[in-house]
Structure formats: structure tokens, C-alpha cells
Write a structure and sequence with these properties.
By secondary structure, the chain is of the alpha+beta class. The protein has 3 domains: 77 residues, Membrane-bound Lytic Murein Transglycosylase D, Chain A, CATH 3.10.350.10; 109 residues, Beta Barrel (L,D-transpeptidase catalytic domain-like), CATH 2.40.440.10; 61 residues, no CATH class. 19% of the residues lie in helices and 32% in strands. It contains 6 helices and 18 strands. The strands form 5 sheets. Strands 6-5-4-15-8-11-12-14 form an 8-stranded mixed beta sheet. A hairpin with a 2-residue loop joins strand 5 and strand 6. The longest helix has 11 residues.
Length: 290
Amino acid sequence: MRLHNLFIILFLFIVPLPIYAGEGLIENDIVYTTLRGDYGGVIEGKIGLSWEYIASANSVNPRAHLKAGQKLMVKFKRIIPMKIEDGIVINIPDRTLYRFVEGRLKDYYFITVGKPTWQTPLGDFTITIKAKDPTWHVPLSIQKEMEAEGKDVLIEVPLGPENPLGKYWMQLSIPGVGLHSTNAPHSIYKFNSHGCMRLRPEVAEFLFKDIAVGTKGKIIYEPIKIIKTLEGRVLIEVYKDFYKKGINYSDRIGAKLKELNAVDRVDWNKVKVVIEKKDGLVWDVTLGQR
């Protein structure tokens, strides 16, 4: 069945919602009320869509000043990149963390991942340590970067507004990588970290309490997502190859469609347009579908 929750208001993304995604498709009609100081980059991290798309959907000038109390309405769709029985899946291109319980999607959150020049490593992981009010022990590699940029070289950063880890840290079994809060919530849903994955402070607090040490997960890199719905529609979601891994989009899409026995169900002209856009939106490419 499709996942469809009407009128999700403001911060309901940070509270686990009853999610049923039998087809692997998340669908939400969102109403977001702007807060004082909001701007496009911040709203992207709350809704998980580009500001250009959100602004266009609301006939708002993307460069215009936003007033507190403005209502922004948008349809959110996201194809789940893969399912596991229990644990976490993090997909780098869509900058989203998905949690599963007994094979079903429990909730999902938008994150910051490593910048293309400092990529988040891929692979299986386990949550090994949780720490509240962590001290940031600055890695030598980042100390060297500070020095190269002419900044003060820091060895440690204690709890406080200057600590980029925020108040909550969850260490992964992947060396040097963790999930953590942030003192820069405007960076959420961007490629902006040194490999770790940032969460909005309220999301980090919730997950810190809700995720147990020993929880397993996977970090994947899947810029192409395709599903065939129960009605036989073919939906595609495509992202840029942010980490420049040499993705052959046409070949990958062809292989996925073959797996779904859907090669003859798509309009290839529509597929080409989606490949060109690489906009992270879900497009219906079913043959004959308007």
C-alpha cells in the first residue's frame, strides 16, 4: 500500500509516524509554517526537498524574504532505496536515514553527509557507543585542514555552542564516523561534513534515546531508485552522482527495470528527461501515463 499522511505540520518529521510502505514509496502532503529566521536552505533540511521545488510549488520567489507564519504546501514523495529486517539504512545521494522494524519502515530523517572532497564511507556498521555532551577530539586530518586554511588549530572542543557535535553522539563501527547533533542545523540535507552524518538537534535527541547500542545498519550510495507499484506504474527517482563514482545512468536504469520485469512498461523519452534532470523528485515514467 502507499504511504499517505495528510497535512503533516511543522516538526512532525522528528516524531516517529505510523508508516506503511508496502510498495516502497513514501507519500506525504505537507503543510509547513515558516518560523522567524527561516530561509530556503533551512527549510530544505526540514522537508527534504530542494528549496527551488518548494518555492515553485507555492509560487514563491525563491530569493524573497520569508515572513514568519507563511504556509508552504508541498507533496513529498520518496522511494525507499532498500529494505532490511531491522536497523538503519542511510542513502548518501538522498541524504536520508531510514529505520526499519520487522521489515517495515518505522521512520525517516534528513541528514548532512560528507562533502564530495571528504566522503562519508560506505558499508555495514553497528552503533558501538552513545555519548551525551561529547567533547570533540579534532582528528589530525581536520587539524591539518585548519592549519592550511589559516585558522586556529584546535585539539579538543568541549561542550558548548562551538562544538560541532552538539549534545548527542552515536559512534559507528566505521572508524572515525558517527551520527551526531549539530550546531549548524542550516547544513542539514547538504553535502557539508567531514564524513560524519549530522542530525537536527531535536532529531538527534530523539534518536539518541530511541536507538540502542548494537543497532546495525548500512550506508549505501544509490542515486537511482525505481519501483513498480501494485497498479503497474513505474516510478523513478534520480540524483546527481555527487561523489563522482562514474554512474552509467542508462545502463543502471535498464538493469533495474529488467529486474522489475518493467522494461516494456516505460516511456523511454520520459526516462531520458528524468536522467537529464537528476532532481531527486519521483517521476512516473509509465508508458501512456500522463
